[in-house]
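Researcher: Last one for today. Full complex below.
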Amino acid sequence: MLVDSHCHLDFPDFAEERAAIVARALAAGIGRMVTISTRVKRFRQILEIAEAFNEVYCSVGTHPHNAAEELDVTAEELVRLSSHPKVVAIGEAGLDYFYDRAPREAQAQGFRTHIAAARRTGLPLVIHSRDADDDMAAILQEETGKGAFLFILHCFSSGRELAKVGVALGGYVSFSGILTFKNSTELRAIAADVPRERLLVETDAPYLAPIPHRGKRNEPAYVANTAKVLAETIGVSEAEIADVTTENVFRLFTKMPRPDVTAA
Ligand SMILES: [Zn+2]
Ligand SMILES: [Zn+2]
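Model: Here's the assembly. Have a good evening.
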């Protein structure tokens, strides 16, 4: 079994055939999917999707792109919304200096609000970081100094140093389809150096479909393609990488129950 630790099932790309996509993922051995919130304003819709499928769980939070629109969302509100049994994580929040869709100060402020909520709930924080390695490392160091919290550097595509800092602070590192791209040699080298007990896989669907689906719409079933490349990268079997990453998921997403194997 594999878990897609990060996808966006609420995006319009999936509207027509969401049930078919979940069914395809299950048929491909993806036993759990976490659909990630990008706007607290849209949380209702995300929760409805998580409630509609046994195997789908969700997060609550504001993507850095939308940070300026949701600065009024408090840590208290995130904590309150996350009390629903289907909510297993906070985020995604963080810093995106590649697109700079929100002012950087707004991104940082929103990010720190999400950190506070993660600390208070004990739920893992899904961190989005793009072209912001130094500021991300600085905030993580400062905030973990104030009090520990669990976190994932999702869709990791940053530099080696940020991976090191994240792991040193107790974080997990999640790899998407980018890992499978031909020119991702450095990223694979970074993945090979992440301790196995901190590795996760994800699709970030509908974006970033792994090879051989590159350029098409991504979906949770394709997380298997990324897991296969991760296995090759660190020199283990596909069965082993499935075991390792799935164990990691359930250690981290403590609110998400394991599938009942006896019922399968
Ligand atoms: Zn992201
Ligand atoms: Zn995402």
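Residues 104-121 form the longest helix (18 residues). The pocket of zinc ion (ligand 1) is lined by residues 92, 128, 154-155 (CB under 6 Å).
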